[in-house]
Please model this.
Amino acid sequence: MSRVLSILSKAREELGDVNNTRFTDSKLLEHLNDGIKDFILSTKSLKERLYVELASNVAIYDISKYALFVERVEYMNTKIDTLSFTELDSINAMWQYETGNVVKAITFEHQSKGSFRIYPRLNTVSNNIVSSSDYGILVDFSLDDDIVGIPSIIDVEQNLQAYLVLYVIKKPNIITLTTPDEELELDELYDKAFVHYIKAQCLRNDSDSNNRQFGNEELSAYAMYIVNNNKDFALDNQVSGDRIIQYKGFM
Model:
């Protein structure tokens, strides 16, 4: 039995639903995917470094396909700040129209989830970015852990004319009933945590007050896995990989 089916089967067994009459597979899978996402955000256990290639006069970039959370941003080799609209207005009231040859800051404010705006937009980049799809090209590289636990790319500066480096919490794979074990990005040590999470969500949505209380207890049991994980420095620096995103689109 695959890990996914094992997790769902264990949750059903402990929920008293071995005949699959109370909860649909789609609902349990929804809770499982939510639990994995919550665990990754809470523990920062899947880190990735994204290289976003910048295009001429493009202000807004979308990384929602790849990342849950951005921890740090660099332009080339220089760290840049994340600023609010108010802070950018204090720099230049017309900042949204400003162009330049160096990115000084980014903002997530007033953008759709997963998108950010650079300041200023670049006017010195060629428009020769070629993409095979509307979603851009992803290139995976071999892992080579450096001192901060993030993999390195050899000679990346020679391959990209202008880019941002985003240190992010990776968006996990979407889990289905047929997902093979090797595509589950967290160790099987945490499968029991997801059983607790699934049970918690099912019970907390129940109309019976006792079941809702049991659901809170299950959520507390799940939370203990997060607490214990955060004590483990090695896992907290788990590396997923490096990817180059060649952005296609003009906004």
In short: Helices lie at 3-15, 25-43, 85-91, 156-159, 191-204, 209-230, 233-236. Confidence is low (pLDDT under 50) at residues 129-155, 233-237. The longest helix spans residues 209-230. The first strand starts at residue 47 and ends at 53.
